[in-house]
Amino acid sequence: MKDRVSPDVCDWYKGPSLMEILESLPLPAGREPNLPLRIPILDKVQIENSRTIYGKVESGTVKLGDKVLMMPNDHPC
Predict the structure, then answer these.
(1) Which domain holds residue 44?
(2) Could you tell me if residue 1 is inside a domain?
(3) Could you tell me if residue 2 is inside a domain?
(4) Dihedral (C-alpha) 32, 53, 26, 60: value to the nearest 10 degrees?
């Protein structure tokens, strides 16, 4: 997925890796990276004592180490 597959493993595929394809895709029009981060919740999954929440970034950017709050409860994430 990250690196190209060598021909001795997969001789029929000569294209880019999945990460190269994803990084080359253009960003959709209408998204503003300089606006506040907005991620509407799409789904929630509860497994034992942990909860996973899925969403889609609608505006803004998030980077490793950013401190974010889940609203409206001001819950740190």
Answers:
(1) 30-76
(2) no
(3) no
(4) 20
CA 70 – CA 77 distance, rounded (Å): 7
Tens of pLDDT along 4-39? Answer: 888 888 889 889 999 999 889 887 777 777 888 888
Q: Is residue 21 part of a domain?
A: no
Query: If you average pLDDT over every residue of the chain, what do you get?
Result: 86
Tally of domains within the chain? 1
Going from the C-alpha of 49 to that of each of 28, 45, 75, the distances in angstroms are: 36, 11, 17
Please state the pTM of the whole predicted model.
Answer: 0.50
Q: Is residue 62 part of a domain?
A: yes
Tell me the C-alpha distance between 65 and 17, whole Å: 27
Please state whether 30 falls in left (phi above 0), alpha (psi between -120 and 50) or beta.
left
